[in-house]
TrEMBL record:
It comes from the Bacteria. It is a multi-pass membrane protein. The chain crosses the membrane at residues 21-45, 73-91, 103-122, 128-146, 158-177, 203-225, 246-273, 279-301, 308-334. This is Iron chelate uptake ABC transporter family permease subunit. It is found in: Cell membrane. Belongs to the binding-protein-dependent transport system permease family. FecCD subfamily. Signal peptide: none annotated. It comes from Nonomuraea corallina. InterPro entries: ABC_BtuC-like, ABC_transptr_permease_BtuC.
């Protein structure tokens, strides 16, 4: 029994390893199971047959299932995948498991931009999206220029990113404290990261943006994985490093900013998903597909836990991801220290 399988579509075929395929299928199955359970759970439990009927457009629960619960499940899957992709991008660029947007300050920068839109502008969806992207790009530029000696790799960038993250967190707290009471309360609640109340109307544009960025990453993936073998080898094989890195940073910031603009800063998914996906798929580098699928499953599971733990009160999903991610970060640091 070989470790590879050949996938065919007409005259085209591709040879892939069995383990990544098995891991991807298992993650898709897990997403379907957890997503279906999430559709059953809400203010009241819905029988699985009732959920299936509602998805088909029959019964008395069509509005509850298709218009209230399904957008939340879809948002958790798509936003989790976006965060997983962002984490995979920056972990590949920095060649470090700690190089995720929420550790090196990009999440905090996106949140700063969103806070400006909330407190200074009229906080329309377009303003939130543009301000979040601008804040994330500004944070990425600051981290890059402060760590020019190591480029986009090395522990120097991680340490500088943590420092930038701390400073931006302080700036965000100052903005909230200076805002009017009602605005500050809304911004503070939104800062926890939540999928409560999302609907199809506000998800169409973010889903389109994430889809476009995912297609861009499909095109950039071969070059990104070549850079994992070393800059010299990547250049020798025809990879243009600077344009590639710029596009990857833009895609990573775009994924993070899109999620932040709709749901607020949801931390630790981008940190954990790429590494968990890598372990499941058994790949040498941080692959994009396992990271995206793992991110979707993690965020969907965390959101379900946020609804179940203190039911009928639904917690912001960011509270759950912080608890789980904090434990993962401690484990990761202990593991790295043990290897040192």
């Amino acid at each position: 029994m070989t470790g590879h399988v050949v996938l065919r579509a007409g005259a085209y075929s591709i040879r892939v390893a069995r383990r990544p395929v098995a891991a991807a299928l298992a993650l898709v199955a897990a997403a379907l199971v957890v997503g279906f359970v999430a559709l059953c759970f809400g203010a009241s439990w819905s029988h699985p047959m009732e959920v299936l009927a509602a998805l088909a457009g029959r019964g008395d629960s069509v509005v509850v299932i298709r218009d209230w619960r399904l957008p939340r499940v879809a948002a958790a899957l798509v936003f989790g995948a976006a965060l997983g992709l962002a984490g995979a991008i920056f972990q590949n660029l920095t060649r470090n498991a700690l190089g995720s947007p929420d550790v090196i300050g990009l999440d905090a920068g996106s949140y700063t931009g969103a806070l400006v839109a909330i407190t200074v502008l009229s906080s329309t969806p377009a303003q939130l999206a543009v301000s979040s992207a601008a804040g994330g790009l500004a944070a990425a530029a600051a981290v890059y220029f402060l760590s020019l000696r190591s480029g986009l790799s090395g522990m120097r960038l991680i340490v500088i990113g943590i420092a930038v993250n701390a400073m931006l967190t302080a700036v965000n707290s100052w903005i909230v404290l200076r805002a009017e009471l009602e605005v500050a309360m809304a911004a503070t609640g939104w800062s926890a990261g939540s999928l409560n109340g999302v609907d199809w109307a506000e998800l169409a544009l973010p889903f389109g943006v994430v889809g476009a960025l995912a297609l861009l990453l499909v095109a950039l993936a071969p070059g990104m994985h070549q850079t994992g073998l070393g800059d010299d080898l990547a250049v020798a094989s025809g990879v243009r490093l600077n344009p590639l890195r710029l596009l990857l940073v833009l895609a990573g910031v775009g994924c993070t900013a899109t999620v932040t603009a709709v749901a607020g800063p949801i931390v630790f998914i981008a940190l954990a998903a790429p590494q968990i996906g890598r372990l499941l798929a058994g790949t040498a580098g941080v692959a994009l597909l396992p990271a995206a699928l793992t991110g979707g499953v993690l965020l969907l599971t965390a959101d379900l836990l946020a609804q179940v733990v203190f039911a009928p009160v639904a917690l912001p999903v960011g509270v759950v991801t912080t608890v789980i991610g904090g434990g993962y970060l401690i484990w990761l640091l202990v593991r790295r220290a043990g290897r040192a």
